[in-house]
Write a structure and sequence with these properties.
The complex is a heterodimer. Chain A contains no helices and eleven strands. By secondary structure, chain A is an all-beta fold. By secondary structure, chain B is mostly beta strands. Chain B contains no helices and 13 strands. In chain B, the strands form three sheets. In chain B, strands 2, 4, 5, 6, 9, 12 and 13 form a seven-stranded mixed β-sheet that branches. In chain B, strand 4 and strand 5 form a beta hairpin. Classes of the chains: A mainly beta, B mainly beta.
Chain lengths: 106, 125
């Protein structure tokens, strides 16, 4: 299953609302996770089952979607949110990740 | 505190072999599915392999199938990845990561909640 993220990069300011999309090549129900990765660090789980916030993740992060189209939204971008974001399908093996979306400071 | 610590990375020639280890602590290792994920320099994440909690089920990405073998030693709380016939394209940071056991419609739906710091494997002559 291929995952296509868009955009591949974006520039935004602190306080902006940011939306990242992830499209699956076939239906995956709600079997999708989102991660944040900062340079030189391991990824961090943000959301599982498409829309469930992982423990300890700030509520400004939210996920939505089902089937083939998914969205990660950051309601008000904070300085610590500048990073690369990946979606991952856990519907079937081999598991796959999207290509990533780099969120940069405008 | 949950910890995953990888080791065993390094420089190896094409066609060579390497065994990675991942030492787990701070949780009941035997009850978790564990995965390997890799990241080539400047590239995205690629899922490599997984093993279920009792070691009876393994899966591999297409790019490593037949060359890599995942295993676990629950007595030592350690995960392994035996990598044979290494290629230049296997050069990457290799992470071990724990799958969080969330379920949706009676199927596993969780992502990976804890990750190691990664170990770099470089395949080059």
């Amino acid at each position: 299953i291929q995952l296509t993220q868009s955009p591949s990069s974006l520039s935004a300011s602190v306080g902006d609302r940011v939306t990242i999309t992830c499209r699956a090549s076939q239906g995956i129900s709600s079997y999708l996770a989102w991660y944040q990765q900062k340079a030189g660090k391991a990824p961090k789980l943000l959301i599982h089952t498409a829309s469930t916030l992982h423990s300890g993740v700030p509520s400004r992060f939210s996920g939505s979607g089902s089937g083939t189209d998914f969205t990660l939204t950051i309601s008000s971008l904070q300085p610590e949110d500048f990073a690369t974001y990946y979606c991952q399908q856990v519907n079937s093996y081999p598991l796959t990740f999207g290509g990533g979306t780099k969120v940069e400071i405008k | 505190e949950v910890q995953l610590v990888e080791s065993g990375g390094g420089l190896v020639q094409p066609g060579g072999s390497l065994r990675l280890s991942c030492a787990a602590s701070g949780f009941t290792f035997i009850t978790y599915w564990i995965h390997w994920v890799r990241q080539a320099p400047g590239k995205g994440l690629e899922w490599v392999s997984r093993i279920n909690s009792d070691g009876s089920i393994t899966s591999y990405g297409d790019s490593v199938k037949g060359r890599f073998t995942i295993s676990r030693d629950d007595a030592k709380n350690t995960l392994y990845l035996q990598m044979n016939s290494l290629r230049a394209e296997d050069t990457a940071v290799y992470y071990c990561t724990r799958e969080v056991p969330y379920y949706y419609n009676n199927r596993r739906s969780g992502g990976f909640d804890y990750w190691g710091q990664g170990t770099l494997v470089t395949v080059s002559s």
